[in-house]
Amino acid sequence: MQKAPKKSKSPGPDWANPIRELRHKLRLNQAEFGQRLHYSAMAISRWERGEQEPTDRGYIELGNLAGDPNCWYFWERAGLHNDTLLSVMPRLQHRLQKKRFSDLEIVTAGSGGLKPTSGKLQLVAIPVLKTVAAAHGEKGGGTSNLLSGPVESMIAAPKTWCPNPTTTSCLRVRGNSMAPIIQDGYVIAVDHSQNDHTLLNGKIVIAWNRDKGLTVSRFKRYDHTEVLEPENHGYESITLGAKHRWKIVAKVLWWIGKAA
């Protein structure tokens, strides 16, 4: 009696192999690789076996880690295309249209000790989260973790704008408590690793409250009193303390918005 042929194992999805190849190229085990990306070793294992596809945030971090030219594969899977890049950085248009990618240098996340190459423009990709930082008195995004949550889109920015790419995210502003500096609808880039109160006096920050969510404001220290002050004097300041339970979660690095 003839034996039935063994069923061949179906190939995994197209996105699994590039992830595995990147890890092998960097000579990292799954735990080390996951640590660089802020994911668990189990998540990396599921990615490589094709059981679970990375989130948009995961693809963004994979691209930042891969560097040029492999970053573009991961970034495109997260939604970043050349037209998105050009809309944020018009001065790159002439270079990209001529495909002069030698003028660009994609920085590997976590490679802060490397000196920039002379004459090259270094870029990193940053996720734009589906959450908002609200004006004073309004309710903003509900979570204080700016490394989690769904991603709306992504943008590319100069490395000099993002000293810590792996802890940088973008979110939108709702309301006008920071006008005229930051208007309603602007996109702000925030670094959640910069949350030390002693280093943030006078800086624009993101604060979080369990009931109010995320709020954008200017942080001020007066002797033993800490205050969140709006730029728009039509809004009231917020005094930090045990009663109000506000937490500084990130420093605002920069912002962009459409001209009126």
Helix content: 10-25%
Low-confidence stretches: 86-104, 106-118
Taking all residues together, what is the mean pLDDT? Answer: 79
Largest sheet: 10 strands, mixed
Structural class: alpha+beta
Name the overall outline.
Answer: elongated
Number of helices: 7
CATH homology-level superfamily of the domain at 122-256: Umud Fragment, subunit A
Under the CATH scheme, which class of the domain at 122-256? Mainly Beta
Q: What is the architecture of the domain at 122-256 at the second tier of CATH?
A: Ribbon
Number of DSSP-assigned strands: 10
What order do the helices and strands follow? HHHHHHHEEEEEEEEEE
* Radius of gyration, whole Å: 21 Å
Report, as a whole number of angstroms, the end-to-end distance: 80 Å
CATH fold-level name of the domain at 122-256? Umud Fragment, subunit A
Annotation keywords:
single chain; 260 residues; alpha+beta; Umud Fragment, subunit A; 10-stranded mixed β-sheet; 7 helices
Write the layout of secondary structure elements.
Blueprint: H1 16-26, H2 30-37, H3 41-48, H4 56-66, H5 71-78, H6 82-88, H7 93-97, E1 104-106, E2 121-134, E3 151-158, E4 168-174, E5 187-191, E6 204-209, E7 213-222, E8 225-229, E9 238-239, E10 247-256
Parallel strand pairs: 1-2, 2-4
Antiparallel strand pairs: 2-3, 4-5, 5-10, 6-7, 6-10, 7-8, 8-9
Helix pairs in contact: 2-3, 4-5
